[in-house]
């Protein structure tokens, strides 16, 4: 069993990823930390509490920061046109304020859990990297205690999705993302280079809902708005971005990775761009020198990944 903390901003594709983690037999979901991104922090935290109740898992949920890593940084508009005003496809998520929430802020929860389980915790981060960067700032020693950090984010050799340079999770707090990439812990970047190859159709999701019980029926319902958004890019389907990062944890053999130092541009028209210096490539002196080599996913066995996702989601 792999102990996983899921750092998330639910979010439609976050919901599928969360159900995957909750149902996969090799995953011990020991915590969920919330961040802003697909919606403001109060909404994403409420959504996490709602999904915990509906999906039937018991992991503690800790609320993260609603502000960026660098004080005073303006927050970009929230993508209501993708995830809806409530972050979950405008299904009308109820107020979950009566549900228990861990008293610690997310970054303190991360620090405490990592120190309590040295060498065992995998962080799967699928939103802004703010909580992780805040944890590093307070307790930099945790880099020696984490098993790995798997990130859904970035666009290394392909265009971004918020502009030609940047992917949304990285663009949303680039200073935080850069702090996470250059830290001396093992990072795996599962970005648009691979996630855009993983497409689930509306009919495929409906078929899963018929087999997977109320949790998958809910997932099907909250995904309809999201699928409608994707109609201009893929036909009657959606991309399962965040679930790809979860699949890496249990089936890394489905991915082709490239090692090398990764930096995030934090200013200019390329703000939020993830750039890797592949190991073995020689350049003059640069800001990539002397940094840890991290893994960027460059290709994926998409059909096998989707088959694993479908098999896992219908487990009850």
UniProtKB/TrEMBL annotation:
<feature type="domain" description="Inosine/uridine-preferring nucleoside hydrolase">
    <location>
        <begin position="4"/>
        <end position="302"/>
    </location>
</feature>
<keyword id="KW-0326">Glycosidase</keyword>
<dbReference type="InterPro" id="IPR036452">
    <property type="entry name" value="Ribo_hydro-like"/>
</dbReference>
<dbReference type="InterPro" id="IPR023186">
    <property type="entry name" value="IUNH"/>
</dbReference>
<dbReference type="InterPro" id="IPR001910">
    <property type="entry name" value="Inosine/uridine_hydrolase_dom"/>
</dbReference>
<protein>
    <submittedName>
        <fullName>Nucleoside hydrolase</fullName>
    </submittedName>
</protein>
<keyword id="KW-0378">Hydrolase</keyword>
<dbReference type="GO" id="GO:0016787">
    <property type="term" value="F:hydrolase activity"/>
</dbReference>
<dbReference type="Pfam" id="PF01156">
    <property type="entry name" value="IU_nuc_hydro"/>
</dbReference>
